[in-house]
Write a structure and sequence with these properties.
Oligomer: single chain
Number of helices: 4
Number of domains: 1
Structural class: mainly alpha
Strand content: under 5%
Helix content: over 70%
Low-confidence stretches: none
Radius of gyration: 17 Å
């Protein structure tokens, strides 16, 4: 087994390392996001619409977020002179920008708890994906 923590930034990760890492991030993200939904559900009044909180909605969105984040990481890693510095700014900015639709659902009748749950879910996906990417695709 390859120790990716000592991998030189110039070496490409193996496909297996990337796939296993991303699968792990996806499974953990969906599991933690499911817990967020369960907790949020306790605070959303019965009969009030729940937007984005069904497993069939947030699980694919979580996986898509991981894949898009991986693509962004790859592009920054490949093209930026100082990818660590770029990602140190870019990752939080992307997470905050991803909250815009979560705040927008308030106007569509969702509860504040619903909106906050979705925002937390985006943060979870980033928090679980960044360490995986830093290991399988080191800067």
């Amino acid at each position: 087994m390859t120790d990716t923590s000592t991998r030189s930034a110039g070496l490409a990760p193996t496909a297996g390392e990337v796939v296993v890492g991303l699968l792990g991030a996806a499974v953990l993200s969906v599991a933690v996001n499911f817990l967020i939904v369960v907790v949020a559900g306790k605070f959303i009044p019965a009969g009030q619409e729940r937007m984005g909180l069904a497993l069939g909605e947030f699980a694919p969105a979580s996986v898509l977020g991981i894949l898009l984040g991986t693509l962004g990481w790859y592009l920054v890693r490949r093209s930026a002179r100082d990818p660590r510095r770029v990602l140190r700014v870019l990752v939080p900015v992307v997470v905050v920008v991803s909250w815009i639709p979560d705040l927008g659902i308030l106007a569509a009748g969702a509860s504040v708890v619903n909106s906050l749950a979705l925002m937390a879910m985006h943060a979870v996906v980033a928090a679980l994906t960044v360490p995986v990417l830093s290991r399988v695709m080191p800067l």
